[in-house]
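pls design
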């Protein structure tokens, strides 16, 4: 029983040291300096219809100056039609292709020059805004704490294994020679 308590205390102390606020902040700063830490989001609206012909007719109306949100409310079969087709902010991976590529290729205020076909139907897309998001330290603390704790326990186990004399036996109780 004493060994279990002692082992648990060693792991606990290892984790406390590994995930101190200073070390968490240092790891966050390392990650924040890497390319790809920040990510892009777009805020877009879309109009979803079943037929390409209908999408082309709506595109002509948009090109003539019609209001995108109003057309979405009137014609889109998407559940979000009631709010003018507003999808809110999203990252590329949240949307299916080729919708994602089409949306991320547009500048704010622009709408797609042609309907985009997906498994859901035909889309017209308008990008309202684009922003770069950097996760805050506070947002990442739980993930960093878990990651760094796992790394510390793995390092501790590796160190203990390296210092331990481990004897292996076969099914008959005979010692198995150590592999070097």
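designed seq:
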């Amino acid at each position: 029983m004493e060994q279990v308590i002692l082992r648990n205390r060693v792991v606990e102390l290892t984790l406390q040291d590994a995930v101190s606020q200073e070390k968490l902040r240092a790891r966050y700063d390392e990650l924040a300096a890497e390319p790809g830490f920040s990510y892009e989001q777009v805020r877009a609206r879309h109009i979803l219809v079943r037929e390409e012909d209908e999408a082309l007719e709506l595109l002509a109306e948009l090109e003539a100056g019609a209001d995108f949100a109003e057309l979405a409310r009137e014609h889109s079969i998407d559940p979000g039609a009631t709010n003018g087709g507003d999808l809110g902010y999203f990252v590329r991976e949240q949307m299916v292709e080729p919708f994602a590529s089409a949306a991320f290729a547009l500048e704010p205020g622009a709408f797609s020059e042609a309907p985009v076909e997906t498994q859901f139907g035909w889309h017209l897309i308008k990008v309202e805004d684009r922003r770069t998001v950097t996760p805050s330290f506070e947002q990442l603390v739980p993930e960093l704490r878990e990651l760094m704790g796992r790394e510390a326990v793995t390092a501790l186990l590796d160190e203990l294994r390296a210092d331990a004399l481990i004897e292996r036996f076969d099914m008959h109780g005979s010692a198995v020679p150590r592999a070097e």
